[in-house]
Amino acid sequence: MNSPDPTVLATIRSKGHILLATHFNPDGDALGSLLGAADILQSMGKRVFCYLEEPISPLYRFLPGAGQIQTDMNRVREFVDYAQDDFLTLCLDCGDVQRLGRHYEELSSFRPLMVIDHHRGNKGFGDGFWVEAHRSSTAEMVYDLAKALGIEVSSRASECLFAAISTDTGSFRYESTSSHTFRVVSDLVSRGVKPEHVANNLYDNYTLGRLQLMQEVLATLEMYERDRIAIIRVTQHMLDRTFTTMEDTEYFINLPRAVSSVRVAVFLKEVEPLHVSVSLRAKGKCDVASVARRFGGGGHRNASGFRMQGQGVEAVRDLLLPVLREELQA
Ligand code: 5GP
Ligand code: MN
């Protein structure tokens, strides 16, 4: 129980150079797991390269170690060449190989490649994988990895892992939050994490523009199926008007989801004209991972997503509604 896959563990132990990667558009769990793992592996004397496709979002720059993240693939190639056989790629919080981003083919060619993840539907890619879909977060698994490696988790790594678990559990509210989750965060707090400091950075640090964007987004609310489906949307025009970016929409979907009658909340995000990213959040038995998979996406039972190109926001909504109605009847 809670112990890493033996192949993943043994490979991590044996390699001196580790390339850490996660999914594009990284959320708190992706970034906290990455930076927490980096600190843990560095404390074992390993050389670690933290790769992201884009610079880390300002929201997460408070995470200790955020400055070591690099976005240049040439530097990744140099690191891989230099390490020769003493090398490993470790993918964290990434449910399928294509979510590594636009360089996924090259990144996944840097072998051996090991995966630690908690996404439902992750069939396991790479040469070894430790995937547990019931886990609250990848960060909880990174903590268990440190224990299995016999490493004392530093206060810096603790803060990264705590922030990751806090965001991926919706502040310890989602179904995946277990007694083990609380044991882990209890230990992280005893290692120096100040929950108030993390919460201030994550949840009470927004711009006025974000509040104005929230007003605009909530004004788009549409309700269907006797108020069991709630749909909101954001367009590029709204972002322009409020001087915000798509990152400012994080957590908005939880507002319609919080209405008691709502079983599924949908957030339609116009990434660019005719390119829509869809976030789905469900309560109870409703499985939105299977809904997202019908559209080529994925995720967890209660939190999933997909992307669609060639259609506008309204067309995507009209394609999605019948599938959601079917899922509500299941
Ligand atoms: P979010 O709505 O926060 O973007 O994503 C919620 C969950 O759905 C995340 O766990 C994420 O991994 C998954 N997800 C979101 N978009 C996609 C997608 O386009 N493809 C896949 N496979 N999973 C997605
Ligand atoms: Mn996660």
UniProtKB/TrEMBL annotation:
SUPFAM superfamilies: DHH phosphoesterases (SSF64182). Residues 18-165 form the DDH domain. Pfam families: DHH, DHHA1. Gene3D superfamilies: 3.10.310.30, inorganic pyrophosphatase (n-terminal core) (3.90.1640.10). Residues 257-319 form the DHHA1 domain. GO terms for molecular function: nucleic acid binding. It comes from the Bacteria. InterPro entries: DDH_dom (IPR001667), DHH_sf (IPR038763), DHHA1_dom (IPR003156), Oligoribo/pAp-PDE_c-di-AMP_PDE (IPR051319). This is Bifunctional oligoribonuclease/PAP phosphatase NrnA. It comes from Desulfobulbus oligotrophicus.
